[in-house]
Structures are given as C-alpha cells and as structure tokens.
Specification:
The complex is a heterodimer of chains A (about 170) and B (about 150).
Chain A lengths: L12 H19 L7 H10 L8 H4 L2 H21 L13 H6 L3 H22 L3 H10 L3 H25 L3
Chain B lengths: L1 H18 L4 H8 L5 H23 L18 H16 L3 H10 L3 H23 L16
Classes of the chains: A mainly alpha (about 170), B mainly alpha (about 150).
Chain lengths: ~170, ~150
C-alpha cells in the first residue's frame, strides 16, 4: 500500500524501527534526554498560559531541547515531501481511506481533526506520555505505567477505528 | 546543542514520514489488523532500544561522561484513562503527537487543526489539573526546585 504522500512506497518496517531506536538511544547517550514528544504540547502552552501546571520544572527545563527536536520533526516531514519522487512540497488535503469512506468537505475534515486533537492533547497529558515516551522509551525501559498506558491506547485505538470503519461507516 | 536536537528530530521525522507511521491509511490499517507495518516498526524499535538502553544504563555515563539520568513517569489512574482518550484521538486523526508535526511539515493542511486541538486539549488539562488531581491520584506539581 503506497503512502498518501506522493504515493511513495514505505520503507521496510525493520529499517524504520531501527531508525527510531537509533534516535532514541542517541538522545539518551549524547544528550541525556528521555525521548518524549507529547510534553512538547505543554512547552508551547507554557508560553501563553500562566498556569501552575505549565510552570513545572519538568516543562521549563526541557523546552530547550524538546522545541528544537519538534522543529526537526516538521523539517523531516518537509524534507521527505521535497525529496519525494515526482512530488516536491505542496499543501495537500488528501486523507486516503477517510476521503473514500467518510467524505466530508475541507471544513468537516478540519473539525474532525480538531476534535481528535483534543483527545490527543488531553489524553497524553493525563496518561503522561504518548507513543514515544510510553510506547517506545517506557516499554524499552520495562516501566509498568508505560505498559498500562500503551495497552490502553492501543486497545482504544483498535476499538475506535473498528467502530468508525466497520460500524459507523461501512467499509 | 540545539542543532543536534534539530538534526535528530529531522531524522526521526523523515523516518516517521516515509515508514507509514505518519500516514492516516497505515494507522487505520494497524487498528483494522490489515497491515503489519506499524506493529513491525514499534516492535523493532522496542526490540533494539531495550538492550541499547540497558547497555547505556549499565555503562552509566553519557558520551561526555555525565551520569545517565532517566526520569521515570509516575503511576496513577491517569495512565489508563488518559491512554484510552489518547487512543481514541490517535484513531480519529490517524496521527499520534510526533506525526502531527511531521504531517504539518509534509504540507497536510488538516494536521494544523489536529495540532490546534492537541494544544487546546493540553491547555484544558493544565487548567483543570488541581480539580482532577485527587480523582486520578496525579502527582503534586513540582515548581521551582530546579530539578526535572
């Protein structure tokens, strides 16, 4: 199955997993940092929301590495699009399966994404991590809260997608 | 150091972009059990990170000789409840937090709406933290001690 981006064929999962492990280990061994991306939402909030939660040391002292790292994520996606065969970078609305089965116009898609984003932002803060901090780092470090969180979000993702595509909108 | 983080983030973002981890179809295919790709990616990442992490902790020092510090995440009721909410969001958007940023870089307009939602969700959590603290047994806020 090709990617939505320029219909490129994805790299092999073993190569991708190795790349993720390399970055995770490099962050710790070179810079003494624990991989975690969703705390970056707090970093951004901490600039505009004068709330106690966002003045935590865990936020203030990690902005200096996490914000450039997140900037790199955006840049990595940009470079990937620019280097894509026959592609180059251009704004796109394509959403694959969603377009085929659910439809909705641009406004509906934005609303859908905003609602999903609310769940992601609130949920990752309540769980104290996401796929990177709990799923990759926490599991690799055999941390119990990470096993619990990862099982919870994998199960909820499976149930939600099965509900959306097998019950709500028939595939 | 900021350049190092930017470079590592760029590699991470490129891998997420080209592997399917930042692709709506591949996320749905993972949850629909119609593709092994994402399970393979996460499984390989953990299978390599786990022994690597063990070795680094055993060695005990970073490349510059400082003691390795791995801050641990607290255990509380939010792990399950928050995990469930996040899983629902991951399914709706087809993106987890890293890929939200990657998709913005790729030029996917709708990812900006996902980011706006995520920031609003995180902001809401920060605003009601003290009110849900006891219900979820969340840790006390650590402010001004100079420690992460």
């Amino acid at each position: 199955m090709p990617l939505i981006l320029h219909h490129l064929m994805p790299i092999h999962w073993a190569i991708a997993g190795t790349g993720i492990a390399f970055v995770t280990l490099a962050l710790l061994f070179i810079a003494n940092r624990r991989l975690g991306i969703s705390t970056g939402f707090e970093d951004v909030c901490s600039f505009v929301l004068p709330l106690g939660y966002f003045t935590r040391d865990a936020v203030r002292l990690a902005r200096g590495w996490r914000l450039p790292f997140i900037g790199g994520l955006v840049l990595g996606g940009f470079v990937s699009a620019v280097l894509g065969a026959g592609g180059g970078w251009s704004p796109l609305w394509d959403l694959g399966l969603f377009d085929q089965v659910i439809g909705f116009g641009h406004a509906g898609k934005l609303a859908w994404m905003f609602v999903g984003g609310l769940f992601i932002g609130f949920g990752t803060r309540l769980a104290d991590g996401c796929t990177s901090g709990h799923g990759i780092f926490g599991l690799s470090n055999f941390e119990l809260p990470s096993f619990v969180s990862t099982l919870s979000f994998m199960a909820a993702g499976i149930v939600t997608t099965q509900f959306i595509y097998r019950v709500l909108f028939h595939l | 150091m900021a350049l190092l983080y930017l470079a590592l983030g760029t590699v991470f973002g490129f891998v997420l972009s080209r592997s399917g981890a930042a692709d709506y179809n591949y996320i749905q295919a993972m949850f629909l059990f119609t593709s092994f790709q994402l399970y393979g990616i996460i499984g390989t990442a953990v299978a390599i990170t786990a022994p690597g992490l063990w070795l680094i902790k055993r060695y005990g020092r970073t490349v510059s000789g400082r003691p390795v510090v791995v801050p641990l995440k607290p255990q509380h009721r939010g792990n399950i409840a928050g995990g469930i909410l996040f899983g629902i969001g991951w399914s709706i958007c087809g993106m987890c937090p890293g890929p939200i940023f990657v998709n913005i870089g790729e030029g996917k307009i709708y990812a900006i709406a996902a980011l706006a939602g995520a920031l609003a969700g995180a902001g809401l959590f920060g605003a009601i933290y003290t009110r849900i603290q006891s219900a979820f047994r969340l840790p006390r806020l650590v402010v001004g001690t100079g420690r992460t």
